[in-house]
Design brief:
With 343 residues, the chain is an alpha/beta fold. The chain contains nine helices and 18 strands. The chain is 25% helix and 23% strand.
Length: 343
């Protein structure tokens, strides 16, 4: 696994929009403020041509243009790290235009983003053995004040932290809107993790190679030319694999079907444990299926720890995760910690 160099003091942060850009509110004002914050901290910034665009369908621009922007950021730009402007819907359509070979042969750079950015973060580790960060997108750094999760993400990309912990509460309803673009997270709910088997709530620890992302995107990658998960599993079978999974638009039936499909494709071979993020559909029940048994009824057969409702993904705040790293997990009750070993 290749690990990029961390962002140093006075370094240059590159921003690109391979999914949605920051053309509309509240994202534009939040992104503008994020740039101001980074400049005050002494960092340079380099904006790709699509950061403020909305010419595409489900992405910032036409797929070819988004692919070109991403390639240029990795291969030609002198930026030190890359942060995606946002998530979106159709980043998968840019993949035919991504120069994976050229990027692999270039100096590695940290890439950070989540949701639709699974299409790069996940494939960076699987196809190129290059670690990336599943973490907040650019506009989140414009909130005032920064939540600890945002500080954690910046500490990870600057190399000041090698582990993160869960947070005390979470946001059910967003506090940020067009009138309040810089609003911090609207924390109203108490953090309560779910363990399966339940007895593991007393304390559990495990380690392995960390991989995963947003189920909405992973489902689309399964069975395509980009599905090299079997090869990845074989390369790292001695480490064992820790899968982290979270869902955005999927209802509980969708989650169950998607996990069934990934399981049937053999993705979870050599699994050491599952880390499941709080889904957007939390609290939903359909025909006796909720977001808990939608997962456990498929994955229980592996007889490994399953920790659910974690601070991963769309229900903010989210822990930044180094995808491709060798991870060490410790959890008990409502305490969770994950450390990242760069080996």
């Amino acid at each position: 696994m290749r690990y990029p160099g961390f962002l140093s003091s006075g370094g240059k942060i590159g921003f690109i929009a391979p999914s949605f850009g920051c053309a509309t509110e509240p994202y534009k004002s939040a992104f503008d403020n994020a740039l101001s914050v980074f400049h005050k901290m002494g960092y340079e910034t380099d904006l790709g041509p699509n950061c403020y665009e909305e010419k595409g369908i489900g992405i910032s621009n036409e797929p070819e243009m988004c692919g070109e922007e991403l390639n240029n950021a990795f291969i030609n730009s002198d930026c030190d790290v890359i942060i995606s402007c946002g998530g979106g819907e159709l980043m998968c359509t840019i993949l035919p235009f991504v120069d994976f070979g050229g990027i692999r042969n270039s100096k590695p750079k940290w890439y950070m983003g989540f949701s639709d950015n699974t299409n790069y973060v996940f494939l960076s580790a699987v196809l190129m053995d290059t670690a990336a960060i599943y973490g907040p997108c650019a506009s989140s750094f414009g909130m005032e004040p920064w939540h600890k999760a945002i500080g954690d993400a910046f500490d990870i990309i600057t190399g000041k932290a090698s582990k993160v912990s869960g947070y005390d509460g979470w946001e059910r309803d967003r506090g940020k809107n067009e009138e309040t673009p810089l609003a911090p997270y609207n924390i109203t709910e108490k953090t309560e993790y779910v363990f399966y088997p339940e007895g593991m709530k007393k304390g559990v620890s495990f380690e392995g190679r960390l991989i995963g992302g947003c189920l909405d995107c992973l489902s689309n990658l399964r069975g395509t030319v980009y599905d090299k998960v079997s090869d990845f599993n074989e390369r790292y079978k001695e480490d064992g694999i820790i899968w982290f999974l979270e869902a955005c638009d999927l209802n509980v039936m969708d989650i169950n079907r998607t996990i069934w499909a990934l399981d049937s494709a053999g993705w979870f071979k050599y699994v050491k444990g599952f880390l499941i993020g709080r889904p957007v559909c939390i609290g939903q029940e359909m025909m006796g299926l909720d977001h808990i048994n939608a997962v456990t009824k498929i994955l229980a057969k592996y007889n490994v720890p399953i920790i659910m409702d974690l601070d991963i993904g769309h229900m903010s705040p989210m822990m930044p995760l180094i995808v491709g790293s060798y991870a060490h997990v410790k959890a008990s009750g409502d305490d969770f910690e994950i450390g990242f070993e760069l080996k």
